[in-house]
Amino acid sequence: xxxxxxxxxxxxxxxxxxxxxxxxxxxxxxxxxxxxxxxxxxxxxxxxxxxxxxxxxxxxxxxxxxxxxxxxxxxxxxxxxxxxxxxxxxxxxxxxxxxxxxxxxxxxxxxxxxxxxxxxxxxxxxxxxxxxxxxxxxxxxxxxxxxxxxxxxxxxxxxxxxxxxxxxxxxxxxxxxxxxxxxxxxxxxxxxxxxxxxxxxxxxxxxxxxxxxxxxxxxxxxxxxxxxxxxxxxxxxxxxxxxxxxxxxxxxxxxxxxxxxxxxxxxxxxxxxxxxxxxxxxxxxxxxxxxxxxxxxxxxxxxxxxxxxxxxxxxxxxxxxxxxxxxxxxxxxxxxxxxxxxxxxxxxxxxxxxxxxxxxxxxxxxxxxxxxxxxxxxxxxxxxxxxxxxxxxxxxxxxxxxxxxxxxxxxxxxxxxxxxxxxxxxxxxxxxxxxxxxxxxxxxxxxxxxxxxxxxxxxxxxxxxxxxxxxxxxxxxxxxxxxxxxxxxxxxxxxxxxx
Amino acid sequence: xxxxxxxxxxxxxxxxxxxxxxxxxxxxxxxxxxxxxxxxxxxxxxxxxxxxxxxxxxxxxxxxxxxxxxxxxxxxxxxxxxxxxxxxxxxxxxxxxxxxxxxxxxxxxxxxxxxxxxxxxxxxxxxxxxxxxxxxxxxxxxxxxxxxxxxxxxxxxxxxxxxxxxxxxxxxxxxxxxxxxxxxxxxxxxxxxxxxxxxxxxxxxxxxxxxxxxxxxxxxxxxxxxxxxxxxxxxxxxxxxxxxxxxxxxxxxxxxxxxxxxxxxxxxxxxxxxxxxxxxxxxxxxxxxxxxxxxxxxxxxxxxxxxxxxxxxxxxxxxxxxxxxxxxxxxxxxxxxxxxxxxxxxxxxxxxxxxxxxxxxxxxxxxxxxxxxxxxxxxxxxxxxxxxxxxxxxxxxxxxxxxxxxxxxxxxxxxxxxxxxxxxxxxxxxxxxxxxxxxxxxxxxxxxxxxxxxxxxxxxxxxxxxxxxxxxxxxxxxxxxxxxxxxxxxxxxxxxxxx
Lengths: 499, 499
What we know:
Two copies of one chain form a homodimer.
Chain A: H1 4-12, H2 18-28, E1 33-35, H3 38-41, E2 58-61, H4 65-78, E3 82-85, E4 102-105, E5 112-116, E6 121-124, H5 130-137, E7 142-143, H6 156-162, H7 169-172, E8 179-185, E9 191-195, H8 206-210, E10 219-226, E11 228-229, E12 233-241, H9 244-256, E13 263-268, H10 269-279, E14 289-297, H11 299-315, E15 320-323, H12 327-338, H13 340-347, E16 350-353, E17 356-357, H14 363-377, E18 381-385, E19 391-392, E20 394-398, H15 405-422, H16 440-444, H17 447-460, H18 475-480
Parallel strand pairs in A: 2-4, 3-4
Antiparallel strand pairs in A: 1-2, 5-6, 6-10, 7-11, 8-9, 8-10, 12-14, 12-15, 13-14, 13-18, 16-20, 17-19, 18-20
Helix pairs in contact in A: 2-4, 9-14, 10-12, 10-13, 14-15
């Protein structure tokens, strides 16, 4: 993937002398860890999108709020851009450093500040790992619902920045639906509290605005999240289909039957075979597609729902339906799904993970389009995704060492995203825009919307020093990219340019 | 309630010659209804907060999107402020007209555009009544969850503007949690689509920002809402208490027991007596407080929950617990609650309805504070409110014809809101800020937050023509008001100025 625009972006930013900035920050923050030698900076050159790499000018590792405030003030005064990074697990390059910027790493903010089991609230620092919140809440029978695949490693601050989802977000919502309040520090070093324990807050909903803002509006320094009671029971059905479209249709049928599963995941044959070969989950390797449907809640309720879903799956033409007999089998079924990405990694030298969202009803159609495009571009595509909320993750298999395959994979990826947008969907589900999808934003949004995004950004950061070049493309970039405006699912041009 | 600031506000706005504006708009929009004679304007001089009245310069009643676009463009060009109004049922004066502005009334946008039972989505025009959505969805076994008391009359566009709640918002969320997409028209007459059917959208969350923005960012011209399946069954428990604090404690206990009731409402003795006298709901008139707890869902599940809640209520010291025997009794129990405001209106010449939100755990304490303040100010206060989400509606009873009572009621109201903020709550739960709470916003938010609100407003409306003087106070107003900044529930000064 090309980094041309990175270089150009850095070229547009003010060039500050590194030694001078280092000296200024060392003087202002004598107690803060500040990395500047190349070998110390190297581990921070990328996040989870490792194809994009930039060595930051400096890496700051503050350990308290005062240091964050002072750092932001000084960077603002010096005109040095700041990119904030959590655990670095993001998949869209949202925490990709800038050659001329400071990388602000929040990993030392590791404290769980309080857990209130009665109010079902946890107040934590942004560097706390997603799973650590649930572990801390477990003695009270509570947990934090959003569960991105990276939940062992990813931090809640990064979850807020990317509005992270996960297997359970169909039923329990995205990060934005599970965060009650944020403490933030602005570019100018001012502290603000957004939201609160009350259901609604007066004024504009800056809390929702911050979720998914990818570090462009401020630095998250504290997060208050909702905790939920652990469901009494959870059961998983696995249904096999001899046709991908039928499985896609069954997804809509389940929702239309009034069921909201805790998780509703789909895998196609290529993904099934790869996962089975790796994990031995007990998947039916002859099936064209499987659905995994988890139902959670009170025992009696779950049993009713299992019966209803079984009926729907039969009507939709499932060739086999299995209920996980026990907790061990349930864990095995999920393990295959959760390891599907590395499993696919075993059968192909390279793969490219897409992340688009479409309305559920469009699943059969878009799956058909992907199959046709796979043939057209002569590249295998494995589908493994959050079917219930229409969040697709087609994995394009290729070999970067074979002439032209990377380019074909990129072109195919572009066509798949085009199909998502044309079906009324969006270019990203849960991985964010970051650096990766910056050009696709020109496709997703007309000029009016982009202008409004920039104006909102300017409300927090009028000089554009917070994570420049991510999330919201400049109008100049879109003009250069040959911006084609897609509105209401209609593409004015049949072709989507490469990215 | 004083209107001093209205006059001042209008004084700050550009004065355009009425005849000239009328002629301009008539020329630009020959087919649109445009009211200009005093007798035609009179019905629009206030919304549900009838104490505040201003005759608008003109009233525009467009009937299609093109008219809205043209109207906004012309008003922008002419520099004429625009206040948008839905059904006019709002309780905070959000749709109070401006003497120098156009009142844009969206009541003719009455069409239900589509209902998709499979995707569980309704696409409607903004003038559609809240209840009409549920009525239209009923044949599919679906309904629209947020149910403000005014749901027979209020329109979905107004619900979005105020982020309306209702009895069921504890379980099913506010308007923002039930709206998937909006079509809006900006001040400059540009159309935009915010959100979509997908769970998440890239870019900043302008959809959430629009909910509760009180007409300050644009005009809502279409709303796409989630529909939910009607619960299989709903049962209501009524518990009596000999002490208000015990009832408040029971609310927290129910939630802490892992139950999320469909509705959890509280009434104190004064409200109970007034409602019983009016509706004959079968309420225990000797009780100091009652809780109404509705549990909805699948039959077996609801029965389990009824048992659990009954146990919690007993432990909390309920003196009597009754389960509504049938649908008729359930309806009667709710009828008393839903008619509590008019019932209180029958026992007092005037009443002033407050709307503050506090964390649930603070209920016993704040109820105690209200009782003490009621004695101190020698005015009766009836409490009837959404206890489950800590949204209080103290009704202050007074007689405006008795010297000084209105002023005492206002002062008492200020003290009650002060107590809400000091307990970590907010100055409004579901009624919005509008014109009524504009000064309290200076108390709720420090200068930094207010500055950010203004910057966000400017992202959509840099010239300040959309509903000026509502929702977000100017810094000048706060300075004049003697802005005391409350942050994290701490009041720097013990007294809250009158409003």
